Automatic annotation (TrEMBL):
The keyword Amino-acid biosynthesis does not apply. Residues 136-316 form the ABC transmembrane type-1 domain. The chain crosses the membrane at residues 27-47, 53-75, 87-105, 140-162, 174-194, 200-221, 242-273, 298-317. It is found in: Cell membrane. This is ABC transporter permease. Its main location: membrane.
Length: 333
C-alpha cells in the first residue's frame, strides 16, 4: 500500500481590512459644532459686550479639523478607532457649547457678570494674555517646587515608617494627627513661622502632597509579600538591596496612587498659598478679578488651572506607565 503525497496548497493571502468610517455619531457631533458656528456668526447678540466673529470662526475652524480627522480616519484604522472613542465627548461638548452660546450671548437668559458667554471668555484671554501668561508661569513654578518637596518628604516618611518599626512607632501618631489637617488651616501659623511669603507658599503646597504620598508609600512598603525578601536574602541580598530593589519597586503602585492624590491636593493648596502675599499667580489673579467682579477673567484663570492639572496628570500617567510596564498585562488599567 503506497502513500500518496500531495503538495500543500498555498494559503490565500489574508484579505485587506475593510475601510471603516469613524462611526455614525461623528456626523451628529460635526453637525452640532457646525450649528454652534452658524449660531455664533449669524444670530445677533443680545449682549453687545464682545465681538462674536472670532469665536464663530474658531468654532468653524474646529469643524474643519473634525472633517480632516474623519478623512484621515477613513484610510487609517488606528485613527478611526481613536476618533470613535472620542466621538461621544465631541458631541457632548458641541451640545454644551451650543446651549451655552444660546443662553448667554444670543438670548441673555443667563446675564452677566456671573455668567459669561464664549465671546466674553475669549475676550478675557486676549485682553489679559500677558498677565495670564505671567501668572501661569509663577503658579507652575510654585506648584512644581512644592510638589517636588512634598513628594520627596512624603516618600521618605512613608519609606521609613513602612520599613522601620521604630520610625512607625514615633511617626504614626504624627501622621494621624497632623496629616489630615487641611493646608488652609495652617495659614496663620505659616505667616508667623516662615521668613518669607514664598517659602510659606512652598510649604503649604508641599504639605498638601506630603500626607497622601506618605500614607500610601507606607502602606505599599508594609504590604510587600514576605516571600520576596526571603528569596532575596537567600541569594545574599544586603539590607540596602532589600529596600531599593525589592521593597520600593513592589510598592510603586501605591506610591503612584499617592502622587496622583497629592497632585490634586497640591492644586487645592496652591490657590490658598498664593494668598500669603504672592503678587503673581493664578490663585492671586482669581481672587483679584473676583474682587472686581470680572468673572470672565476669573473663569479664564480657572480654565488655565484645569488645563495645567490635566497636563500634569498626563505626564504622571506616562511616568507611571513606563515605570509599571511590567504590570500592564496583570491588572486592568
Amino acid at each position: 500500500m503506497t502513500a500518496t503525497l500531495t503538495a500543500p496548497t498555498p494559503t490565500s493571502a489574508a484579505p485587506a481590512p475593510a475601510r471603516q468610517l469613524p462611526g455614525p455619531g461623528l456626523a451628529a457631533a460635526w453637525a452640532l459644532w457646525v450649528l454652534a458656528a452658524v449660531l455664533t456668526l449669524a444670530v445677533p447678540d443680545a449682549l453687545d459686550a464682545a465681538d462674536p466673529l472670532v469665536t464663530g470662526l474658531l468654532f468653524a475652524a474646529w469643524t474643519l479639523v473634525l472633517t480632516g480627522w474623519a478623512i484621515h480616519a477613513y484610510t487609517h484604522p488606528a485613527t478611526a478607532a481613536a476618533l470613535r472613542r472620542r466621538t461621544p465627548w465631541i458631541a457632548v461638548l458641541g451640545a454644551w457649547v451650543l446651549v451655552w452660546e444660546w443662553t448667554t450671548a444670543k438670548t441673555g437668559l443667563l446675564v452677566p457678570p456671573h455668567f459669561a458667554s464664549p465671546q466674553h471668555l475669549l475676550s478675557a484671554f486676549v485682553s489679559d494674555a500677558g498677565i495670564l501668561a505671567s501668572s501661569t508661569w509663577h503658579s507652575l513654578v510654585l506648584l512644581l517646587v512644592g510638589f517636588t518637596v512634598g513628594s520627596v518628604a512624603g516618600f521618605g516618611t512613608g519609606l521609613a515608617m513602612g520599613w522601620s518599626k521604630v520610625a512607625n512607632y514615633w511617626g504614626n501618631p504624627v501622621l494621624q494627627f497632623i496629616g489630615p489637617v487641611p493646608a488652609a488651616t495652617l495659614l496663620p501659623v505659616v505667616l508667623v513661622v516662615f521668613p518669607s511669603t514664598y517659602s510659606g507658599s512652598v510649604f503649604m503646597v508641599a504639605f498638601g502632597v506630603w500626607f497622601p504620598v506618605a500614607v500610601l508609600t507606607r502602606a505599599g512598603i508594609a504590604g510587600v509579600t514576605r516571600g520576596y525578601f526571603d528569596v532575596a536574602q537567600t541569594l545574599g541580598a544586603s539590607p540596602r538591596f532589600l529596600v531599593w530593589r525589592v521593597a520600593v519597586p513592589a510598592a510603586l503602585p501605591n506610591i503612584f496612587t499617592g502622587l496622583f492624590m497629592g497632585l490634586g491636593a497640591s492644586l487645592a493648596a496652591l490657590a490658598v498659598a498664593e494668598l500669603l502675599g504672592v503678587r503673581d499667580g493664578l490663585g492671586w489673579y482669581i481672587q483679584w478679578t473676583k474682587g472686581w467682579a470680572a468673572y470672565p477673567r476669573m473663569y479664564a484663570a480657572i480654565i488655565i488651572m484645569i488645563v495645567i492639572c490635566r497636563l500634569l496628570m498626563l505626564v504622571l500617567f506616562r511616568v507611571r506607565n513606563r515605570a509599571l510596564s511590567w504590570q500592564k498585562d496583570l491588572v486592568r488599567w
